[in-house]
Amino acid sequence: MKKFFAVVICAVMIVSATACTGSNKGDNVESSAEIVNSTVSNDESSQAESNKDDSKMFASIQNYLEYPNTKKSIETMKSTLSTTLYDFDCYADGDALIYEYKFTKQIPDDKLENVKNILDDTFEDMDSTLSDLMEELLEYVDIENPIISVKYVNNDGSVITEKSFDKSILEETISDVNSSDEKSV
């Protein structure tokens, strides 16, 4: 009986944490994107200005993440975004920048589908949030097609759900802005 209530409480916490914060997961991604963007924009733009010969500042996403100011920003993000519900990590995997949210407690199998559906809904709001980060990657990292991947991982390491964003999010963001402008006219 205690185990049943623990599972129910865990599921309610996940649903309420996601529901109460509305787009909190999207906000977390936005916060982390803003931190990384401001680090690159403020500290590297003067250095990038001196590299006018079309070479990019970073050869890879891993180099980008190893840059001291970026490392400091990511550590800040980790301490800010890690909660009792999940831990946050940001790392490179080839040409992909991975944002990973790992639940601190195992989500039971019978609750996974509901949790996955809730998390999948948060992906709809991420295009505009991650477009700024994609622009930064395209500007500063010498990769033709960078990927930003957002993963939600169960405590055992199994992926609950994930979505990858490529540079087409820049086009989607522009079309979203245009369609909202048309609606307001």
Automatic annotation (TrEMBL):
Key words, A-Z: Signal
Domain of life: Bacteria
Signal peptide region: 1-19
Entry-linked InterPro entries: DUF4854
Protein name (database record): DUF4854 domain-containing protein
Organism annotation: Ruminococcus bromii
